[in-house]
Amino acid sequence: MSDKKETPKIGEKRKDSNQPLILPGIHRYQFFTNLKDRGWTINLDRVALFGIVAAMLSVVIKPLLRWNPATIYCYECRACYATQDRCPVGITLQAELVVAARVLDYDRFIRNGGLKCIRCGNCQSYCVQYLPLPEMFSVMQQETRRAMVNGVIPKDILRRALSQGLVGKEYIDDVAKTVA
Question: Where are the domains positioned within the chain?
Answer without folding.
Answer: 1-66, 70-179
